[in-house]
């Protein structure tokens, strides 16, 4: 937007006083409290209001400067909509102290985090050997003490990305089942698309309108849901051999282990915009595990175990944010530990996969946390 000649209240008053005095044959009384001064200041107040209306109008009529609902309205003129938030999903393990009787975990059962802020619902997975379609639930057979089942956050958004071991409460009761926990961190929940990402995808959409282009394929994949990352490799097969006229996509939904359903959706999205006779393949990323060990020293005023938990969560969150092919710098680990809390006074004995080198990933790989040991 071009620079606007915006004037302050004092400047508007001063300009009017100067003009009136210059046009008068004699001295004009414009002292504070005078009638003319009151008129000048009231005019300036009205001018400030009109000036702000003009600025607001200019801001809301351009995609580059408007935000929120105004940006949604602007994009709606092109039938282009913001990507909605994504519900976090993962596995929780139901356990019991006595495994004498058979137990049933019904689909729709709810579990919550320890602090009660997030609720998750057991979902259907027909590929799970314990799922019984007749009873609409998962059967824990007699003699079996635990069973892992899929759950989905009731509320969409990144807030549903629970840290490992934080989903510990069964809402209500499940007969012959005593405890629940999540052994892994949930990382695939995503907030609604941000304004900046919305604008960037709009530019990509404009570039994709010709179809059968790399931009068109990128737009199709990025529009599946929030948090999708991908790499596209042309004229090579997945195994690295040259194959003109073929390309492959490695696609991740943020979890590092996308489901077959997600990969099928990615294939369909690409197929809708690919060039005629051009062949392609869609693959899940290969996981590269990052095992981190470090020792921290904390301020005497702090509870050391609490700071250890904070640093561990910060490391898990950072590693979970890495996208396809993104490097995990060794030196960044100490930086994250220091940044997690001002009560961390020293970080030592840091190792990444038992070494002190950066952990790299190719376009086929994504780095995710393995064992995080902070002491």
From TrEMBL:
InterPro entries: Barrel_Baseplate_J-like, Baseplate_J-like_C, Phage_Baseplate_Assmbl_Protein. It comes from the Bacteria. Residues 291-375 form the Baseplate J-like C-terminal domain. It holds the Pfam family Baseplate_J. Residues 96-189 form the Baseplate protein J-like barrel domain. This is Baseplate protein. It comes from Rahnella sikkimica. The lineage of its organism: Bacteria, Pseudomonadati, Pseudomonadota, Gammaproteobacteria, Enterobacterales.
């Amino acid at each position: 937007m071009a620079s606007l000649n915006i004037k302050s209240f004092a400047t508007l008053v001063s300009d009017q006083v100067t003009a009136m005095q210059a046009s008068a044959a004699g001295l004009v009384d414009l002292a504070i409290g005078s009638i003319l001064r009151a008129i000048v200041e009231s005019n300036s107040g009205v001018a400030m209001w009109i000036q702000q209306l003009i600025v607001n109008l200019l801001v809301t009529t351009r995609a580059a400067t408007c935000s929120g609902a105004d940006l949604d309205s602007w994009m709606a003129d092109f039938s282009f909509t913001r990507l909605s938030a994504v519900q976090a999903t993962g596995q929780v393990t139901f356990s019991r102290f006595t495994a004498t009787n058979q137990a049933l975990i019904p689909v729709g059962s709810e579990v919550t985090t320890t602090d009660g802020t997030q609720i998750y619902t057991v979902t259907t997975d027909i590929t799970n050997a314990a799922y019984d379609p007749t009873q609409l639930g998962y059967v824990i057979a007699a003699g079996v003490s635990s069973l892992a089942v899929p759950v989905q956050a009731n509320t969409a958004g990144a807030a549903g990305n629970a840290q490992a071991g934080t989903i510990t409460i069964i809402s209500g009761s499940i007969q012959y089942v005593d405890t629940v926990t999540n052994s892994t961190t949930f990382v695939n929940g995503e907030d609604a698309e941000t304004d900046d990402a919305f604008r960037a995808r709009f530019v990509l959409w404009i570039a994709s309108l010709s179809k059968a282009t790399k931009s068109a394929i990128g737009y199709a994949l990025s529009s599946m849901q929030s948090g999708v990352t991908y790499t596209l490799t042309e004229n090579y097969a997945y195994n690295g051999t040259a194959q003109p006229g073929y390309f492959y996509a490695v696609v991740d939904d943020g979890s590092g282990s996308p489901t077959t359903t997600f990969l099928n959706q990615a294939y369909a999205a690409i197929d809708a915009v690919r060039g005629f006779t051009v062949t392609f393949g869609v693959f899940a990323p290969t996981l590269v595990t990052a095992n981190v060990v470090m020792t921290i020293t904390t301020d005497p005023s702090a509870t050391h175990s609490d700071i250890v938990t904070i640093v561990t969560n910060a490391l898990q969150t950072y590693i979970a944010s890495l996208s396809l092919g993104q490097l995990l710098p060794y030196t960044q680990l100490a930086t994250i530990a220091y940044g997690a809390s001002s009560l961390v006074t020293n970080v030592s004995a840091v190792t990444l996969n038992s070494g002190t080198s950066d952990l790299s990933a190719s376009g086929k790989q994504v780095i995710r946390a393995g064992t995080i040991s902070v002491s």
